[in-house]
Amino acid sequence: MAAPSTPSPIPIVRDVPALRRAVAGLRASGRRVGFVPTMGALHDGHLSLIDAAGADDHAVVASIFVNPTQFAAGEDLADYPRREAADVSAAAGRGAELIFAPTTEAIYPDGFGTTIHVDGPTAVLEGAARPTHFDGVATVVAKLLIAVGPDRAVFGQKDAQQVAVVRRMMRDLHLDDIALVVAPTVRDDDGLALSSRNAYLSPAERQSALAISRGLRAAEARAQAGETAAAVLESETRSVIDEEPGCELEYVSLVDADEFTPVEEAAGSCILCVAARVGSTRLIDNILI
Ligand code: AMP
Q1: Active-site positions?
Q2: Of 18, 65, 89, 172, which is most buried, counting CB atoms within 10 Å of its CB?
């Protein structure tokens, strides 16, 4: 006999009509709605977004959808960690009131033919390394924002370039009546930025991966001491990562926070971005300079 399944602590809806009915129910008492899009395998970083979404008594809707269109062939779509029941409990425990966990067919039905391409911040770094990635991100985030219709949507600084792309998309598509909230990167005590992909790391690889945050902190210390030259800050990070044989730097680049154009001098709001490979796992991280 199959074990009885534990009832979900909060409602889970699987398609957009059910989502709209459930969101209308949350709004019925006059409450506003905060939304957190995720691909699941929730960790404390995701849960901090739920906290931010729920501030001032917003009812929190979280989505769990491993969006196939933001993975290129050969990337980790099939291996991406999926653990819905644990995610729903964790999200509910943090105050989320509704989970949107659609099927792929509910988001991309037969004949689906619309792609949102954002120019500008997609040109470099992650956009250059993963040429179809941000089309998938912009398209699914637009669809989710339109389907949920939240008052605020919360994204993590961990994916800073994604934030720049989403901000541009929301402005260009008149979705800017939704407040875009960016929450700080949550890290483990040793500095490693939390990521669902950290689950791929062996203990030894996890040690190697610490070079990424160490390298960023080294540059941050130089910047705090007054250094503004991008080349110096980047080479500070590069030399720390290069000392760790298990961590292969893909790029380190100081960019303008809005446009994501590389800058030569840190001025105004800049972000130092890193991508590196640890074994077969590709990790990204960044700090504000
Ligand atoms: P993902 O499930 O990886 O698509 O991420 C969903 C959201 O969580 C995105 O807005 C991410 O930027 C955010 N996020 C991922 N990792 C962290 C972290 N360590 N701290 C804060 N936010 C994060």
Answers
A1: 46
A2: 65
* 88-112 tens-digit pLDDT: 999 999 999 999 999 999 999 999 9
Q: Which tokens is 111 given?
A: 């004949």
Given a contact cutoff of 8 angstroms between Cβ atoms, the answer to whether 203 and 236 are in contact is no
Residues in the chain: 289
Does residue 136 have its Cβ closer than 6 Å to ligand 1? no
Task: Tell me the CA–centroid distance for residue 214 and ligand 1, in Å.
Answer: 20
User: Which residue's CA is the closest to the ligand 1 atom numbered 11?
Assistant: 156
Give the model confidence (pLDDT) of 188-240 as tens digits: 999 999 999 999 999 999 999 999 999 999 999 999 999 999 999 999 999 99
181 CA distance to ligand 1 middle (Å): 12
Find where tokens 């893909």 sit.
250
The number of domains in the chain is 2
Q: Give the containing element (helix H, strand E) for 217.
A: helix 203-224
Cβ-proximal residues to 128 (8 Å cutoff; 6+ apart), any chain:
none
Shared-domain flag, residues 57 and 102:
yes
- Check pocket membership of 185 for ligand 1, CB cut-off 6 A: yes
65 and 121 assigned to the same domain = yes
Residue 23 lies in a domain: yes
- 46 Cβ inside 6 Å of ligand 1: yes
pLDDT above 80 (res 38): yes
What number is the average pLDDT over the span 40-45?
97
Q: Are residues 267 and 239 in the same domain?
A: yes
- Rounded to 5 degrees, what angle do the CA atoms 55, 58, 64 make? 95
Q: What pTM was computed for the model?
A: 0.96
In which domain, by residue range, is 20 found?
12-183
pLDDT band at 4 (very low <50, low <70, confident <90, very high): low
